[in-house]
Every structure is written in structure tokens, then in C-alpha cells.
What we know:
Layout: H1 4-11, H2 17-27, H3 30-36, H4 50-56, E1 70-72, H5 76-92, E2 96-100, H6 106-120, H7 124-127, E3 139-142, E4 157-164, H8 178-202, H9 209-212, E5 218-226, E6 236-241, E7 247-252, E8 258-262, E9 265-268, E10 276-280, H10 282-287, E11 297-300, E12 308-316, E13 323-324, E14 342-343, H11 344-352, H12 361-365
Parallel strand pairs: 1-2
Antiparallel strand pairs: 2-10, 3-4, 4-5, 5-12, 6-11, 7-10, 7-12, 8-9, 8-11, 13-14
Helix pairs in contact: 5-8, 6-8
Amino acid sequence: MSSPVATAVSAAAPYDRAKAVKEFDETKVGVKGLIDSGIKAIPPIFVHPPETLAELKRGAEPGSAPEIPTVDLAAVQESRAAVIEQIRQAASTVGFFQVINHGVPEELLRQTLAAVKAFHELPAEKRVPVYRREMGKGVSYISNVDLFQSKAASWRDTIQIRMGPTAVESSEIPEVCREEVLEWDKEVVRVARVLYQLLSEGLGLGAERLNEMGLWEGRVMVGHYYPFCPQPDLTVGLNSHADPGALTVLLQDHIGGLQVETEQGWIHVKPQPEALVINIGDFLQIISNEAYKSAHHRVLANHSNEARVSVAVFLNPSDRERVFGPLPELTSADKPALYRNFTFNEFMTRFFKKELDGKSLTNFFRNS
Length: 368
């Protein structure tokens, strides 16, 4: 006959992560909803494994941590070759750089961040109708795109908006950020086309080689919202990853938390007023035959009482059935193609599959 204690223990339901994740997702109010509820400790689904938490403490040695390069685009007029070399150097080593004097009005930078923040801080009942996991939708508000696949959730919510090649109907973009999103997209395209010219020349190609491939036409804008986290040492804002696409243009606010992995360790990408953060994606690493490098990056959980906001635009080719691979001009007998050819559709499908088995996207397409 079993004891009452044993019976009580056996009756206690074990922690059911799948159930907890489903229940959180069904609230449709994201991490912001948890904060609004007044929680003092983060739910178990957000607690990351010990190995991840240990890795968060690994940074560059004190005194050795460099800053990612800053490139002044206004200098293109007087010393184009020098700017091209700056960008080439950054893209071929750390894979990240910041640009200043890019021509985007300061007021629009401020308004875009404020508008995205305003959406995330709408009353819950106004955010809920936009919350959806169907990737094909033009606008989706979501907490953690990989919520059901990841080992642990990240402390962040996101609004995602498809801007190209076929843009979402403007009426579908929430009114609170509609005007700013549309204006921001125009500016990103302008800046991206300039950057692609400089990156193309840095590869020894004609200025328009990358633009002619339409690498700015496929665009997805994401507005991330990182609320205050009551236990920032137990979770992350965004897990370590490399962006799959060609190029990412990021506008971040003053709070910080973005880190990039370098040979010296993890370094902070310090917010600069009016600067844009640019990073190389896996796709550009592949077609450049590794002349340019993508880099792993992450965002720490926000310990500030003020929410952190960032707006990223992922730039990709528009033709998903087109075959891509290392550019023929960048391969030779001495430098053979390091990657096989693929369609962009296969490339992105592979990125969103769980079965990567820990291998990076670039390793999957690497020639053996």
C-alpha cells in the first residue's frame, strides 16, 4: 500500500513545457502582457539552459574589446576609394559596421522608433487582432518566431511587415505606425542601394553588380520590443544567430544590448545617435565566396526600466526561384566555389527548418 506522501508526489503534474508555450501563445499579448500583469519572476519557458547562460558571460577581455567600425558616408564624395576600403575591411572581418551621415532625416529616425514603440504599447485588445503565426501574412505581431521549436523563449515581442517585392496593403499596417513604416522603407531602399554599390566595388566588381541582382527588392521589416526583464540573467532578448539574407539595416535606440561575436570575443555594438547598424548576412557571404563574412550576434535581456526598441530591415533577392551561388567573377582555379548553387526558396526553407542539427546555414550549402 503506497504512502500518502508517495501518492501526492505521483499526482503532482510534471512541468509540461509544450503546454506552457501553447498557453502563453494563446494569450496573444506577448511578453508585454506578462509585464503588464505585474510578474516579478519570468515564467520557466523563458529560462535558458545553463550552457547558454554561461556563454552570455563570455565577452572580450577587458581593454581588448574593439568597437565595430563606423563609416562616414558623407566622405564618399571626396574619397570614395577610402570609404570602399573601410566597408570592405569591415565586411570581410567582423561583418558589422555602423554608418553615419547616411542622409536619413534625424526626425524620421526618432519618429520610426517612437511609432514602433507606440504599437507595442497599445492596449492589449488592439494588439491581439494582429497576433498571428502564419508567415505568409503581410503583417504579423508575434512573440518569438521560433517559440515552438526553441529550447527557451526570448524576452521580446515583434511586429513583422512585408515591404517587398510585393508590399503589404498599407491599410493592413497598424495606423499608429503606418506613416513612419512607409517612409522608413523608402529611406532604407535608398541607403541600401548606396551600400550595395560600395560593397560591390569592394569585391572588385562594377558598382551596380549587386543591385542588378535585386538584393534590396525582397524586404521584411521587423520592429522588436524588449520590455524590462525582472530576471535578465536567466534569459536573452534574442538568441545568438547569423542573419540568413544578404544585408540587414538596423535602427536601434539608445538603450543598447546588441552584441556581435568577434575573434576577441563578444563585443557591444554601442548605440550612436543617428547611426545605422549594417551587417552582412549568410547569403552575401555565400555569393561573395567568403570575401565577406556574416557574424553571429545576440541581444541581452533588457535590465533597464525603459523598453528597448529596434527596427531591422532584412534585404533579400526578390526572385525566390532564381538559382544563386558564388559569383563566377569571384571564383577561379585558385579560389574555387566554396558553396553549391541553390534557389533562394530552398535557402530560406532550410533556414526555417528545425533539422539544421546545430550546423549553420552556410555549412549546409558548403561544397564538400
